[in-house]
Amino acid sequence: MSEREQKKQRPLWPWAYAAFVLTVALLQGLAELQHYLQRGGQHGWEPFLWELSSAAMTGPLSVLVYAWHVAGVGAPLKRQLLRHAGGALLYMLTHVAGMFGIRFAVYALTQVSYEPGTVLSVLAYEAGKDFVGYTLMVAVCHGLFHMQQGERLRAELAEARLARLTEQIQPHFLFNTLNLISSVMYEDVKKADRLLCRLADLLRSALTAQQQGWHTLKAELALIEPYLELMQARFGERLQVQWQIEPAAEACSVPALLLLNPVENAIKHDVALSRGVVSLSLQASLVDTGRQLRIRVHNSGVATERLEREGGLGLANLRQRLLAAYGAGAALQFGPAPDGGTALELVLPARGAA
Predict the structure, then answer these.
(1) Shortest CA distance to 59 belongs to which of 11, 24, 12, 8?
(2) Rounded Cα–Cα distance for residues 272 and 267 (Å)
(3) In this predicted model, what pLDDT tens digit does every residue of 335-345 receive, in sequence order?
(4) Residue 66 and residue 133: Cα distance in Å, rounded?
């Protein structure tokens, strides 16, 4: 993996969180500066030191509070309350010690006098604020945790739905392919045997792809190719296949077995029912300045009405898979092609494009 790709994969939230904490501290410092000057303060940097030293401890401690809270989620309520009582005490002591340690170090370097009071008076003053702050942090952490759980459950539900729809393709594809091969058995037994062996290899690859869930378009086309070889062995010169695939499009990630059903429908409802030569074209390219992947499956001469009627289950499955995988980010068009025949066109987000 290149250095550029590694940078792209680095999460941005730590920087966004640090910027948020710093912004809040600076705004609080500006507000405190007005009161400081009104009281006759001589060093304008002092209010900013007070707020920034507090933020320097609050920021990292907030992350630890989140981890502390998540680790105790699911425990009995009494145990959680005791856990957070100890957490609040530890938070207050760490926050105060770190905050005043930073302040004393800066004041020593600037040789400015700093007398915050006795240890007990400082702890008594800071304890109330830190207890309220800790309670608010726990409330926010609790909300964030459940929000993340909801997102995770929605993602798992979408993946399960996508897997279920993918599983529906296997029997449909298998039965149709076996029906095509069965017609050869009485004409050429050796040829039928070769086709069955090739089908076994294809099903093994399809099962592996289904377990992966997602793979590159290049891998998807590698799965389609042996199926088309099977069909060309079955129909001979009646089936002409053309590939027009841009190299950049091959790197895009797509759901496994996405194109198997459209290609199968084109074979079943065109080549198998036609006595003449039928052309099947597969095209893939990046459009919209590389943000979208356009895939087109075009076959010549088929009646759209018949394909919509007899291949309706496959098209419905494809639409549901696209919805589960991409939501509203994918588009599907099916119908007569301007250059004749019938075309199915998919426009998908170009995920994982090189």
Answers:
(1) 24
(2) 6
(3) 888 877 888 89
(4) 13
Tokens found for residue 325: 């995988």
pTM: 0.52
Residue 77, φ and ψ in degrees, nearest 5: -60, -40
Q: In whole angstroms, what is the distance from residue 123 CA to residue 209 CA? A: 61
At residue 268's C-alpha, the angle toward residues 266 and 273, to 5°, is 105
Query: What is the count of structural domains for the chain?
Result: 2
Range of the domain at 243: 161-349
Distance CA 271, CA 256 (A): 25
Quote the CA–CA distance of 238 and 279 in Å, as a whole number: 8
103 and 166 in a single domain? The answer is no
Helix (H, G, I), strand (E, B) or coil at 328: helix
Q: Is residue 187 part of a domain?
A: yes
Q: What is the DSSP string of 130-181?
A: HHHHHHHHHHHHHHHHHHHHHHHHHHHHHHHHHHHHHHHHHHHHHHHHHHHH
* Predicted pLDDT of residue 265: 78
Q: Cβ of 37: how many Cβ atoms within 10 Å?
A: 12
Q: Which helix (H) or strand (E) holds 330?
A: none
* Burial (0-12, 13-18, 19+ Cβ within 10 Å), 266: buried
> Has residue 354 been placed in a domain?
no
For residues 187 and 65, state if they share a domain: no
The model's pLDDT over 11-38, given as tens digits with 9 standing for 90+, comes to: 777 888 888 889 988 998 898 888 888 8
d(CA 80, CA 86): 10
Helix axes 13-38, 46-72, angle to 10 degrees: 140
Q: What is the identity of the amino acid at 36?
A: Y
325 lies in the same domain as 239: yes
Residue labelled with tokens 């301007």? 338
- Can you give the CATH number for the domain in which 184 is found? 3.30.565.10
Q: Which residues of 183-207 are buried (b: 16+ CB within 10 A; e: fewer)?
A: ebeeeeeeebeebbebbeebeeebe
